[in-house]
Amino acid sequence: MNLKSLVLLKILTLVYLHQCYSAVAGDPCIPSPCGPYGQCKTINGRPSCSCLVGCRPECRINADCADNKYSEPCSGLCGFNTECRVVNHTLICSCNSGYTGNPYIECWAI
Fold this sequence. Notes:
Radius of gyration: 22 Å
Order of helices and strands: HEEEEEE
Number of helices: 1
Organism: Psylliodes chrysocephalus
Keywords: Signal
Number of domains: 2
Oligomer: single chain
Structural class: alpha+beta
Protein name: EGF-like domain-containing protein
Signal peptide: 1-22
Mean pLDDT: 70
Shape: rod-shaped
Low-confidence stretches: 14-18
């Protein structure tokens, strides 16, 4: 084994040991219960999630917070001839008035 491999092995071992120690010690932020753009801090022994700067709580998936900024979650996710709404962080697709079908794929005139 060369020196570079030994250093990498030591780093990986230390990271693993830290994770194991944190889990045994009861760190509620490991693994993090927060979303992809959330930051976990332990407050009074409990995990507390907060959004990163520039990101809003609506961000649930990486695509929602590109560059830590909220983007429109409905963009292109519903089918043709549909309407999209976000209610309580849930995407809801429905057929336009006078149309029927599967709003997540396509709706057609009645």
